[in-house]
Amino acid sequence: MSDDAHVVVFGIDGLRHDMIRAHAPHLTRLIDTGYYATSTLPYLPTVSGPGWASTVTGVWPEKHGIWGNDFTGHRLVDYPDFLTRLESVDPGARTYAAVDWDPLGAAACGGPMITNSGRRFVLADCFDTGDRQVAADAASHLRSESPDASFVYFGQIDEAGHAFDSVGPQYTGAITTVDGYVEQVLAAVRSRPRYDAEGWLFLLVTDHGHRPEGDHGGDSLLERSTFVSAWGEGITRTRPAMQPHNVDVAVTALTHLGVPIDPSWHLDGHPLPLGGPSRTTLP
Prior knowledge:
alpha/beta
């Protein structure tokens, strides 16, 4: 694995892609200059458990076994998250995760979903405060340390949709706030002394959409809508002909780090055609 390959996956819960341009100036700029495409979730219910499990493992619910927000009966041992997968291939790999939805990183509701042994920052279900702390911790860690792979999760947009039964002012305000948090983390990475010589790939994805009345779980197009965006070294404005899927994120992250995808893993995702430089492959 190349010492100068790094990947950060931003997971933003419940972000409607059709509201980004009006309320998220930093994300709009990144989308306009990088890879971006929308897609439709192929499973029900459209809730966070299967959404994030599919994103971080690279397989659909039929394999990872998470169909709701209770993870009991999961098969994450067979289909681990991409951070754990990286560590199993390269025990010296450095990983990082910052989350504020407990089941992602703690023993709640059958979790944790992310079982890596690397540094992990887990918070209680207080998403407005939690997101602020996630952003601060991620910015500090990514500025001063050199994790090969990171997962940074923000939950308050989805929480606002539920709490106020609407994708109105509180929901759109949360989009603007989280937009600032993503920029805070990116600014910290860009301030690294060797940033221009390092191969950073940034991926951003959501797990589901929202109905106008601020809920999700059903099969409407707004609830099933998701998107993937990517930017970083060598990536130019790209609007692919083929829809990306959440399961492509983990595979893309591993591929960027030079991890050969073993067919015995039975992953459902594929590397996104980002057009950036290839990395050195692990032996």
